[in-house]
Amino acid sequence: MQIVLYQPRIPPNTGSIARLCAATRTPLNLIQPLGFSLEDKYLKRAGLDYWSHVHIRLWKNWEEFLEKLGCYNRLIMTSARKGTSYVNHSFQQRDCVVFGPETWGLPEKILTQGHGIIRIPILGPVRSLNLSTAAAVILYEALRQNNALN
Predict the structure, then answer these.
(1) 131, 17 in Cβ contact below 8 A?
(2) What burial letters (b/e) apply to 37-59, b meaning 16+ CB within 10 Å?
(3) Rounded distance, CA 24 to CA 58, Å?
(4) 143: which residues sit within 8 A by CB, 6+ positions away?
(5) pLDDT tens across 34-81, in order?
């Protein structure tokens, strides 16, 4: 399992997701351009002192990521409004779950390149969940399905 953040914009969200990745030994892929510097104090604060435990890969752009990823991984795209509920999706161990920027989500041209689109059902009046919350919900379900939480 891998987490992919496509052009993330908010440092604390990325820091919290990095901490999540450290807690679950999940690689984190960051697709540039980022909306912040990797030296940002809010990014570092959210990740606390776990940065040395995060396997981070920084990619120049989407094309470089796809080229180096290889065909052995499935890309599972996320959307606030489209796709199958994440609880009805069958995750595989080598899936890369791709999240878009907080303010606008994944562009349509990226969304259509995946092996599936998933969403977290929203029952109340909010538009979407916080990115780090969404990443945690989906990652733990994927790990649960693959018996990786023991």
Answers:
(1) yes
(2) eeebeebbebbeeeeeebeeeeb
(3) 19
(4) 1, 24, 26, 149
(5) 988 777 566 666 555 777 889 999 999 999 999 988 766 899 999 998
Question: What distances in angstroms separate CA 140 from CA 34, 68, 73, 90, one per listed residue?
Answer: 25, 26, 18, 13
Structure tokens belonging to residue 76: 């599972």
What are residue 119's DSSP bridge partners?
A: 85
Domains of the chain: 2-145 (3.40.1280.10)
SS3 (DSSP) at 98: strand
Average pLDDT of the chain to the nearest whole number: 91
Distance CA 43, CA 40 (A): 5
